[in-house]
Design goal:
11 helices, 41% helix
């Protein structure tokens, strides 16, 4: 009986095992998770278009970020963004911010350390919106800058693109900032339900207004591919030069440009180095 041909995912698994010199499942299980993720292309610090996924050669013929880099993605309108302080620290363990940056950025590390204000081993004061230096780096490298890279590539391919940042922090959550997932009850209009959960934020009338505006923008986009309409403030299109985005704050939606440009330029430069 002839064995069926191996799928692309199976071939990749065998290649990874060979590269790691693992001849059995037992030996693979003994390998640190960080080494496995690196070997399979799932960079620990990169999400967004660089999110580690199984490239099976069928559903995903190439890593998603390569598709976007080369403009081979579908030509559709895109609304994409991140929260101001997605994380307070990276998903993966690091000895410290300087050590994490050195490991991830290699020859670009010294410039990156300057961007995050690390001088003489001292960290700058925490930013009221973006948080501590390590929170900024964690959010930049695992959410924000990957999002911006994807928008740059998508806009360059000729597709309408819109970026947002969610910065609203409800009362009682000031210490955490606008954390990962905190925008969802606003977008889906479920603040009354979310507010009844144990240890829920104390949403107020400002939150209700922010939610109403976000619902309108998202609904407009779902209908037409353009979030603008009605009496809402104009949300500018994203392009690689201005990098315009809409910042959802306690004072309403505010159009801005160049979200953390210096840090994200280094992030994108680092992508090209790998």
């Amino acid at each position: 009986m002839v064995a069926p041909p191996l799928a692309e995912g199976e071939k990749k698994g065998l290649r990874v095992a060979a590269d790691l010199q693992a001849g059995s499942l037992r030996e693979l299980r003994a390998i640190p998770a960080e080494n496995l993720q690196k070997a399979t292309g799932q960079g620990l610090s990169f999400l967004g278009p660089l999110l580690g996924v199984v490239v099976d050669g069928w559903v995903l013929p190439k890593p998603p970020f390569q598709i976007f880099q080369t403009g081979q993605e579908h030509r559709i309108d895109l609304l994409l963004g991140s929260n101001a302080r997605e994380l307070s620290k990276p998903f993966f363990p690091v000895a410290g911010l300087s050590e994490g940056i050195a490991a991830e950025y290699g020859p670009l590390a010294s410039r990156t350390l300057e961007v995050y204000g690390l001088k003489n081993g001292e960290e700058p004061k925490s930013d009221p919106v973006f948080g501590s230096a390590i929170a900024q780096w964690a959010t930049d490298s695992q959410f924000r800058c990957g999002t911006i890279a994807q928008l740059i590539w998508h806009a360059r391919a000729g597709s309408a693109s819109y970026q947002f940042q969610f910065s609203r922090v409800p009362p009682s959550r000031e210490a955490a900032g606008a954390a990962h997932g905190s925008e969802l009850p606003y977008v889906f209009g479920t603040l009354p339900v979310a507010g009844r959960a144990a240890n829920a934020p104390r949403y107020d009338s400002t939150d209700a207004t922010v939610s109403d505006q976000m619902e309108q923008y998202w609904t407009n986009f779902a209908k037409s591919g353009n979030p603008n309409g009605g009496s809402l403030p104009q949300w500018p299109k994203f392009d690689a030069t201005s990098r315009a985005y809409m910042d959802f704050t306690a004072n309403g939606p505010i159009p801005r440009e160049g979200l953390r440009r210096e840090a994200c330029d280094l992030f994108i430069e680092n992508i090209g180095r790998k």
